[in-house]
Structures are given as C-alpha cells and as structure tokens.
C-alpha cells in the first residue's frame, strides 16, 4: 500500500500500471485475493495520475462488496477517489456523480458515517 501511495504522490503512472499488472498476474497464478485488491488500487492510482476519472471508476466498479473492503485498502481507495474528484476529468458531468457515490461507499468500511465527516468528504469536491 505504501509503495502504491508513494508512486501516486510521485505521479508515476507508468510504474503504477506495471505494478498493477504484476500484482494482477500474481493473483491469477497464486490466487492471492489481497493481490487483486492491490492490483486494482495501483491501476486506479495510475488512472488518477493520467487524469482518467473513468479509469478510476472502472477499477472500483467491478470490486464487489466495497462495504466489506479492508480498511487500509478503503483508505487508499478513498484518497484516490478524492484525487479523481478534484481532477478536470472528475469534475465532468459523466464522472462527478459516480465519484461522489463511490466516496460514500468507501467511507463505510472506514466507519465514517457521521454527518460532519461526510460533509468534509463532500467539501473536497469542487463541484459541490
């Protein structure tokens, strides 16, 4: 998780893509579920660094039971989603509402259910 976060902060979409593919292949070969989750996070991180909000959404769309997600994974996913919401492509009409819904879903495993926390998350959206 820290490597993915570091690569996102560095803006290294190419290495995030490579890491995501390698983790995905490891998941397919070895059946490690956590590697699949990390693969999706790396690929979503690459998408956000390329200003591709739909690419971020695609990584989380097929992730079943976001509410049951590991809290550490959910925290990074929420960070990526917040970055996507602030990006030019995330403020577009097609991505803004799905990203806002995704933010709410990712708050569940973090037990961020109170109105103050939800308002803080929503304030990070420049379209609000």
Discrete helix count: 7
Shape: globular
Q: Topology as H/E string?
A: HHHHHHH
Q: What radius of gyration results from the CA coordinates?
A: 14 Å
Residue share in helices?
Answer: over 70%
**Biggest β-sheet strands, sense, barrel:** none
Explain what this protein looks like in three dimensions:
By secondary structure, the protein is mostly helical. It is about 70% helix and about 0% strand. The chain has 7 helices and no strands. Helix 2 runs antiparallel to helix 3, helix 3 packs antiparallel against helix 4 and helix 3 packs parallel to helix 5. The longest helix has 18 residues. The mean pLDDT is about 85.
What's the layout of helices and strands?
Elements: H1 2-10, H2 13-30, H3 33-49, H4 53-61, H5 71-86, H6 96-107, H7 115-123
